[in-house]
Amino acid sequence: MSTRAATAAARRSRITPERELELYRAVLDLLREGGYEAVTMEGVAARTKCGKATLYRQWKTKPRLVTAALAKSRRPLFGDIDTGTLPGDLRAAAEAVAGRRGRDTELMEAVGQAYLHHPDLREALRETVIAPEVAAVDEMLHRAVERGEVDAANPALGWVAPCLLGVLRVERLFEDRFAGRDPLPELLDAVLLPALGLPPAS
């Protein structure tokens, strides 16, 4: 292919931000309607009248496309939190989780099931969606250590992110225990903050 032809082909396949959002909406709609198995490159291409080759060129694989759509559709939970104290940061993190709870249940259920059974999706989600949230929590903890609030050798530091994010995954398994209650503030005051040597946030 000549240089001119290659340039023209690249121009034709370039995806605008508006077009990208349209493609992401199609992915999320397919997830809600039929779960992860219902999402195919062919299905997204047909629904959006986009060339399948363009999807592969832009995202390479289905898991990459799905995780990109999920990342674009949600604001980070913890990225903007900085209250000046670790108890304040963790309380704000708990409130952020509570604010997200119950939104788009069908989508979260579909992704949660697929996460268990598709290692390629699991790897992509960890990289694109989960790792930034863990990094934001770890940054809260780093600031607390720098301020002298928490000892850097405290073993509980490594459990804060797993606890905060883990509650999102297992809360429904214990819904009878937590009926009518928000478990995260209790987790903070009864478990995490004492383990970190800090007073309750409330």
List the helices and strands and how they pair.
Layout: H1 3-13, H2 17-34, H3 41-48, H4 52-59, H5 62-73, H6 86-100, H7 105-117, H8 119-147, H9 160-170, H10 183-195
Helix pairs in contact: 2-3, 2-5, 2-7, 5-8, 6-10, 7-8, 8-9, 9-10
Walk me through this protein's architecture.
Pfam families: TetR_C_11 (PF16859), TetR_N (PF00440). Residues 17-77 form the HTH tetR-type domain. Keywords: DNA-binding, Transcription, Transcription regulation. The chain has helices spanning 3-13, 17-34, 41-48, 52-59, 62-73, 86-100, 105-117, 119-147, 160-170, 183-195. It is mainly α and 202 residues long. It has 2 domains: 3-72, Tetracycline Repressor, domain 2 (Orthogonal Bundle), CATH 1.10.357; 75-195, Tetracycline Repressor, domain 2 (Orthogonal Bundle), CATH 1.10.357. The longest helix has 29 residues, at 119-147. It is elongated and about 55 Å long. The model is unreliable at 4-12 (pLDDT under 50).
Short description:
By secondary structure, the chain is an all-alpha fold. The chain has helices spanning 3-13, 17-34, 41-48, 52-59, 62-73, 86-100, 105-117, 119-147, 160-170, 183-195.
What tags apply to this protein structure?
single chain, about 200 residues, mainly alpha, Tetracycline Repressor, domain 2, elongated, TetR/AcrR family transcriptional regulator, Homeodomain-like_sf
Low-confidence stretches: 4-12
| Element order: H for helix, E for strand | HHHHHHHHHH
| Structure class | mainly alpha
**In total, how many beta strands?**
0
**Mean of pLDDT:** 85
What is the number of helical segments per DSSP (H or I, 4+ residues)? Answer: 10
CATH class of the largest domain: Mainly Alpha
The Rg value, from CA coordinates, equals 21 Å
Backbone shape: elongated
Spatial gap, N to C terminus: 66 Å
Keywords: DNA-binding, Transcription, Transcription regulation
Protein name: TetR/AcrR family transcriptional regulator
DNA-binding region: 40-59
Domain HTH tetR-type: 17-77
